[in-house]
Amino acid sequence: MLDWDDLRFFLALSRHGSLSAAAKVLHVSQSTVGRRLNSLEATLAVRLLNRTPEGYVPTLAGEEVRRKAESLETEALALERDVTGRDSHLRGLVRVTCAETMAAHLLAPSFAGLHSRHPDIMIELIPNPRELSLAMREADISVRMRQPEQNDLVVRRIGGIAFGLYATSDYIKERGDLNFDDGCPDHHLITQMEDSQEMTQSAWLTEMASRSRVVLQTSSHEAAVLAAANGGGLACLARFRGDEEPRLVRMDVPTEPPSADVLLLVHKDNRDTPRIRTVLTHITESIQALEHLLQPPGANDEEVRDVGT
């Protein structure tokens, strides 16, 4: 008889392509993932995945098993959400995913207050630059700065984040003043990678300083902050981080960088689950209470609003 857990491990490995990546998602060891795959292949008497230099790739039989396993997974998750939604107790695990800087500087400090009011709710905070699947229960709540590509989500704008252009005084002395009319030649840029949540701000920076050279790309906002603070170049940073870093100076610019929305995401089947609803409310109130830091005086922002479901 097939073991559903074996199928679950097979799906993770086929999606992520490596034992280490699948093990990280499943919170187990690499040997456990490999053992589960061997168990499933032995039960079905067929090879499901081929190991290649690019990672594990499904065979023809593996593709067929994956399609059917994903169908079973969808039904199982729908059943779980339906049953979980009937739970009236404020206890249990709530997984929250967001960008690294938001996790460390905005959400993590706020959760002490949540735990004092609801000690039976446990938060699993997952800083991740990529968008985790709420439908597949990789997370219950997501806090992001751009619209999601996933379906069946409730999305609400709960705030905004202002950005500025930063560098150290020593860097400016070494490289010279910023001449935006000439594209800032001889300057270095620190930008975000293409799949990051700050693509809009990076595009603004490369356009403003079109003759500068990109010397560092990263998916980590914290890495960009520290690189700039150590004289690595110009970086477009969230003002709540850049303004608080004593080594950085905010540059005067002819056009302010675009701000970013703070979006709160939850799967439509989970939004009324009491413990998840409680955490959603807490995150909303916490972000809105920090408006003076996220949108300092003089930063343009619109009134907090819903952006749809």
Secondary structure layout plus pairing:
Elements: H1 4-16, H2 19-26, H3 30-44, E1 49-52, E2 55-58, H4 60-84, E3 92-98, H5 100-117, E4 121-127, E5 141-144, E6 153-161, E7 163-167, H6 169-175, E8 188-192, H7 199-208, E9 213-218, H8 221-229, E10 234-238, H9 239-242, E11 249-250, E12 260-267, H10 274-289, H11 291-294
Parallel strand pairs: 3-4, 3-5, 8-9, 8-10
Antiparallel strand pairs: 1-2, 5-12, 6-12, 7-10, 7-11
Helix pairs in contact: 1-2, 1-3, 1-4, 2-3, 5-10
Considering the chains and any ligands shown, give keywords for the structure.
309 residues; single chain; five-stranded mixed beta sheet; 11 helices; globular; D-Maltodextrin-Binding Protein, domain 2; disordered C terminus; Arc Repressor Mutant, subunit A; alpha/beta
